[in-house]
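Researcher: Last one for today. Full complex below.
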Amino acid sequence: MTRQSLQQYGLVAAISLLLAGVPLITREPYVFHILCLIGINVIFACSLNAILNIGELNLAQAAFMGIGAYASTLLVTRLGVSFWIALPAAALITAVFSLPIGFLTLRFKGAYFLLFTFLFAELVRILLSNFWIGLFGGIPGLTNIPTPRIQLGSLFLVTFDSKAPFYYLVLALTLLTILVLWRIDGSRIGMVFKAISQSESLAESVGISTMKFKILGCATGCFFAGMAGSIYAHFVGIITPSDFGIHSALAPIAYVVVGGMGSVFGPVIGTVFMMVLSHFFLRQFGFYELLIYGVIIVLIIRFMPEGLISVPRVLSSWFASRRRRAERVKGYDATGK
Amino acid sequence: MMLLESRGLTKRFGGILAVNELDFHLEEGEILGLIGPNGAGKTTVFNMITGTLRPTHGDMFFRGTRINGFKPSKIAQLGAVRTFQLTNLFSDMTVTDNIILGTHHKSGIGLWGALLWTKHVRKRQMDAVSEASKILEFMDLTTQKDMLAKNLPHGQQRCLEVSIALAAEPSLLLLDEPLQGMNQEEVSDMLARISRIRSEGKTILLVEHNMKAVTSICDRIVVLNFGEKIAEGRPQDVMQNPEVIEAYLGVET
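Model: Here's the assembly. Have a good evening.
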């Protein structure tokens, strides 16, 4: 069983503190905007990875994010529920929604599961665009989604409309997501998930009810996807069905692959790396942005198939082999003379 | 006492009759060998008993419970645990973790307990580790306990498979060609272990091609050919049976 060491907790705490200090360095709204988007994408990539952990790729993950976004928005605008209740409620609704879907689709594996989730993603998009337009707003979606606020009496009021407070909100939720998924990953449950992804038939044959665990893993992933959707809706203020189509899931899948599938921190590193790269560095290349982006993904997959998370390991083994070769050459010189 | 019984067990794949009206039973505490030429239907019988395949018709009873249509995990929880013909391991995990997963279904570790790392779960985890080390010692894998399963040599991988099955505390252990690909020394070690497992009160169903091994270790043998039982009895009697000799060696014309 993998247990988290104190150093790892320390590292996470140090990075979080550094990130919490960002508002001291800059007040640029653009920076905060991008950082919030990165946070939301990190949550989403982690949720995708939670389902990859049971061995399946869910193309409908963005659709589940959409369910969270619509649920949260409708709770706030129609029922007047506070955002602070709507956020966990939306996540729960998404998880509950995923149970029957998981029950039906998780009995299929690999490409078949992929196809079913592809269908489900389209189904959700079409339902949201064409049915119950009075409720869902049709293709233009829902607008004027209020920003969250905290009010205690008449003295204390924080509105999360400016970017810095929202940044802290996203940071806190991202951290929460990572910690919970990290906890699961290190627990017996996480171990069973990994076992199922490596050999479902063996897990089943030693009495592990694999279907139950797969549905559980899927619901966990969808819970966080729904949470990401809820924050996204209140962050952007406008949601449309096309925000949550298949294509919206593709970039995060690339983030997960680049960062490293299977580990908790791989998707985090991948998302931060790719989004920082594209928003802060590649912007200036204009047309060539996506081209360079693609080349980087290909290079990483070619030379680091286990993702950026394996960089320390790859480097150390590279240095070790260089050292060995140097010693061999030296040994050869000595005998040659 | 009868541990496992099949009545009229039949499996049809389209037009192919893989197993036809098979009746056999296992007594508690015995080693039963299931043999037959390639394609005789041995693995199909195996897969039906363990719930991987559903019989076309016929019934199977485990300790008197009808187990037709049970999921493999349910059958394993009842106490019938199998190994696989082709090596099947949690290959990216350590040897110890592989065995701990074998103990999982009866560990009583629930979702919240696991997440909150409660005292109960910590104790159970320690129990699992100590049980794993006992099994590792029995299987002579102690020095490999921290290796990844995929890095073990083939013979030890086969041992690890049996270890995982043992960790699930079966009353009936179903071994699908456990000796496949082993060298002479590994074979005799494994046979000694199988005998010891039986002497600890477990019942064993053994599918194996190594005739010397089967006749030396089994109490009874059931011979299948083209999905039908052609002989049953003590090893020395079965080996004299002309039908069995014909199935294996062909007949002079």
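Chain B has ten helices and ten strands. Chain B has two domains: 1-79+170-253, 92-169.
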